[in-house]
């Protein structure tokens, strides 16, 4: 999961892109990058770290131009080397820079094609580098010295036929404009907006609507599944449906966890969806645990707060902020290594003893993935004096890995994989455990008044993968890349290579 943004403006875009990436920082804290274009010259800055550390005043002064793209990286595989920070760049044809949110599920096949047929070299483990080379090859095949939007869309239609997975992409074609496109199922989000200025209309494309809001852009609409849009340097907007039209099936986990609550994805309010999740979960508690003895409802900050408040109101139980969050610690389920992850939970959250002492506490979380956070927080609650500790999850059991851009680990590292609720409850040390039902979660996210979306990508809950040829061999290969042991080995090798250069 990453944050991407593209801007075509009438003045310098560096600050606008910086502000948008800051708003999208929750989508990736591993690395950040920006490319701008000025008089045919590209200005690039990218490195490991959060947005505020990667871009200092000295860097911003060098990012000239009124057109550019940006990226906030959250790695799903490979290394954390700064070489894998985006945007990626190829110089032929035209000079193409690309930023990508998602995951290509046929990367291995594409790498062979790029090397053997396209005669191009891949220098990192990133599927985004593969993608920019596939796009570059297809644009080169058009053979145009000065490409038209139609030429670009023709090339992109062939790109769509080659790539599989979930993706939202922005690409800067030097001297011509910004290309944006979304996967055929609309799994990954992508939205665009406009802003009127004295010198003309400006455009922004981004992963989430909050980036547009923060910069004062009017939301136009979501880019449709399989649709491409091209914003040229003269501020004209071109569009084409590059694959057969489908209804969007966005990733359900966006609404549960990843997206900011103030964002709107495919005309569905994330905040309203989380309110509904709380209502649905409260109804399940009433139905299956009518004689509960809960004294207080406490959210595990921050994503679960909205649902927790609804549960407390529906059950007529006090809602309390019993866990204080250190906002300078990243999201724990994407951190490499179980030891690091466990330590970070204690650094990230600290209990308010008064809210736990001698009480039966219902902790509410957005989801339970590895179970590390839940187990540590339950122990913290008991140490703070809680009599009983119950836990409710706004999402169903996460039983399967995500293949479309979220770094959910190998199936064997998911606490719910091949376990029932009672076994999970015992492992995390809770007195009772309640999961949201999948049908209820889907109902919570459907907004019949504002959105046409009726289906979602639910693969992490039920193992049904809607895009790409996902079989046991693919999942086995994915597990070997994403396991904690593999990540620690890759990071160790990367560190050693830096210490002992050839």
TrEMBL record:
**What catalytic activity does the UniProt entry give for this protein?**
5-phospho-beta-D-ribosylamine + L-glutamate + diphosphate = 5-phospho-alpha-D-ribose 1-diphosphate + L-glutamine + H2O
How is its cofactor bound, per UniProt?
A: Binds 1 Mg(2+) ion per subunit.
| PROSITE patterns the UniProt entry points to | GATASE_TYPE_2 (PS51278)
Sequence positions that bind Mg(2+): 303, 365-366
Claim: Nucleotidyltransferase is one of the keywords in the record: no
Keyword terms? Glutamine amidotransferase, Glycosyltransferase, Magnesium, Metal-binding, Purine biosynthesis, Transferase
A Gene Ontology BP annotation from the UniProt entry = purine nucleobase biosynthetic process
Q: In which pathway does it act?
A: Purine metabolism; IMP biosynthesis via de novo pathway; N(1)-(5-phospho-D-ribosyl)glycinamide from 5-phospho-alpha-D-ribose 1-diphosphate: step 1/2
Q: Name one Pfam family in it.
A: Pribosyltran
What enzyme category does the UniProt record give? transferase
The prosthetic group or cofactor this protein requires is: Mg(2+)
InterPro entries reported for this sequence: GATase_2_dom, Ntn_hydrolases_N, PRTase-like, PRTase_dom, PurF, PurF_N
* MF terms in GO: amidophosphoribosyltransferase activity; magnesium ion binding
Q: Please give the HAMAP family that the UniProt record associates with this protein.
A: PurF
Entry similarity comment: In the C-terminal section; belongs to the purine/pyrimidine phosphoribosyltransferase family.
Q: What role does it play?
A: Catalyzes the formation of phosphoribosylamine from phosphoribosylpyrophosphate (PRPP) and glutamine.
Q: What name does the UniProt record give this protein? A: Amidophosphoribosyltransferase
Please tell me the species this chain comes from: Marinomonas piezotolerans
């Amino acid at each position: 999961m990453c944050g991407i943004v593209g801007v075509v403006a009438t003045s310098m875009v560096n600050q606008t892109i910086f502000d948008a990436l800051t708003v999208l920082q929750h989508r990736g804290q591993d690395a950040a990058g920006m490319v701008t274009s000025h008089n045919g010259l590209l200005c690039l800055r990218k490195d490991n770290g959060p947005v505020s550390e990667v871009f200092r005043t000295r860097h911003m002064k060098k990012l000239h131009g009124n057109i550019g793209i940006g990226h906030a990286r959250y790695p799903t595989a490979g290394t954390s080397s700064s070489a894998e920070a985006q945007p990626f760049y190829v110089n032929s044809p035209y000079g193409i820079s690309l930023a990508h949110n998602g995951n290509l599920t046929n990367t291995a096949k594409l790498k062979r094609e790029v090397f053997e047929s396209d005669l191009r070299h891949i220098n990192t483990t990133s599927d985004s580098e593969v993608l920019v080379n596939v796009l570059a090859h297809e644009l080169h095949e058009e053979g145009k010295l000065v490409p038209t939007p139609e030429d670009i869309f023709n090339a992109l239609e062939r790109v769509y036929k080659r790539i599989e997975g979930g993706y939202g992409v922005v690409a800067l074609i030097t001297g011509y404009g910004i290309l944006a496109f979304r996967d055929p199922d609309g799994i990954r989000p992508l939205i665009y907006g406009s802003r009127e200025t004295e010198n003309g209309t400006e455009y922004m494309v981004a992963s989430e609507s909050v980036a547009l809001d923060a910069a004062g852009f009017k939301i136009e609409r979501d880019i449709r599944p399989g649709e491409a849009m091209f914003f040229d340097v003269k501020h004209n907007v071109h569009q084409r449906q590059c694959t057969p039209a489908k209804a969007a099936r966005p990733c359900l986990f966006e609404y549960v966890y990843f997206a900011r609550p103030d964002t709107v994805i495919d005309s569905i309010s994330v905040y309203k969806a989380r309110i509904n999740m709380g209502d649905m979960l409260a109804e399940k508690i009433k139905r299956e645990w009518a004689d509960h003895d809960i004294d207080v409802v406490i959210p595990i900050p921050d994503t679960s707060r909205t649902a927790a408040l609804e549960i407390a109101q529906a059950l007529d139980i006090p809602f309390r902020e019993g866990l204080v969050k250190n906002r300078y610690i990243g999201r724990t389920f994407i951190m490499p290594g179980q030891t690091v992850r466990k330590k970070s939970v204690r650094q990230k959250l600290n209990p308010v003893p008064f809210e736990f002492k001698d009480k039966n506490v219902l902790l509410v979380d957005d989801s339970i993935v590895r179970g590390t956070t839940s187990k540590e927080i339950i122990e913290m609650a008991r140490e703070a004096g809680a009599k009983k500790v119950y836990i409710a999850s706004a999402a169903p059991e996460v039983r399967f890995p995500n293949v479309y851009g979220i770094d959910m680990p190998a199936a064997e590292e998911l606490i719910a994989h091949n376990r029932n609720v009672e076994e999970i409850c015992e492992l995390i040390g809770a007195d009772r455990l309640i999961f949201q039902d999948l049908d209820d979660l889907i109902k919570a996210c459907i907004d019949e008044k504002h959105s046409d979306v009726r289906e979602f990508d639910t693969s992490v809950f039920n193992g049904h993968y809607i895009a790409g040829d996902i079989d046991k061999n693919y999942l086995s290969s994915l597990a070997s890349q994403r396991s904690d042991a593999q990540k620690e080995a890759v990071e160790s090798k990367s560190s050693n290579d830096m210490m002992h250069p050839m």
